[in-house]
Amino acid sequence: MKPSPDRPELLPELVEVAPGVHAYIQPDGSWMINNTGVVVGSDDTLLLVDTTSTEARNRALLALVASASSAAPSYVINTHHHGDHTFGNWLMPPSTVIVGHEVCREEVLAAGLLAAQVLTGPDYGHIKVRPPSLTYSTSLTLHLGTRVVELHHPGPAHTRGDTVVWLPAERVLFTGDLVFAGGQPFLAEGSIQGYLSALSCSALSTVSFKPTSAAAQFSS
Ligand SMILES: [Zn+2]
After folding, report:
1. Comparing 1-5, 25-29, 123-127, 176-180, which segment has the lowest mean pLDDT?
2. Partner of 75 for a Cys bridge, out of 33, 47, 52, 125, CB 3.0 to 4.6 A?
3. How close is the Cα of 42 to the center of ligand 1, in Å?
4. How much distance in Å is there from the Cα of 135 to the middle of ligand 1?
């Protein structure tokens, strides 16, 4: 199955999982076709969880995000360094702060655009490397007005620089590639032991999944 921009019947959609909190879902979720998150603060601050892989897909993401918020993104959180989550960083305005774990930044810079040379299926268009400019080591909390957005590093799991994004009031968790709907974990650059530990970390162990791929909304 081909990626959505090439198949009109497979258009991405923005699904509101809590007021002002959206999952951007791209069919069909195969290689280099990820889901992302869109969070609008009480003060209208706009935060994105990840970008996507190709120029066309990132422009489609921004076009649909504009239907949820007229603001420019203040923050983009990179859940890890893989190109389907970071290749759109460069399309964000210079004022957008790209946030990621300190190892994520290292890995974005080390990997460069290699993934586009290895996974040659999509037409990537114009892409450039733009690493996180704000990094953290253990956890970081952002306040979008009264809306709280927590970033936690669960340790090496899918990659060495993973971040999960937790909205405690809304009980919404953006897991990056720690969780695939209907797919097995991908750990080629991560850690099996770390992955098991990540699933046991507090944010993941106190909730039960109602997966929507990009965002999972939870009940205790
Ligand atoms: Zn990944």
Report:
1. 1-5
2. 47
3. 30
4. 18
**Distance, CA 145 to ligand 1 centroid (Å)?**
30
User: Percent of the chain at pLDDT above 90?
Assistant: 69
Report domain extents, the chain: 4-217
Distance, CA 176 to ligand 1 centroid (Å)?
A: 7
Looking at the whole model, is its pTM more than 0.85?
yes
Identify residue 143 by its one-letter amino acid code: H
Cα 160 to middle of ligand 1, angstroms? 11
| Residue burial 20-30, b: 16+ Cβ < 10 Å; e: rest | bbbbbbbbebe
Over the stretch 87-139, which tens digit does the pLDDT of each residue have? 999 999 999 999 999 999 999 999 999 999 998 889 999 999 999 999 999 99
- Distance from Cα 157 to the centre of ligand 1, integer Å: 10
CATH code matching the domain that covers 4-217, chosen among 1.10.10.10, 3.30.420.40, 3.60.15.10, 3.40.50.1390: 3.60.15.10
Amino acid at 120: T
Give 34 Cα–ligand 1 centroid separation in angstroms.
Answer: 9
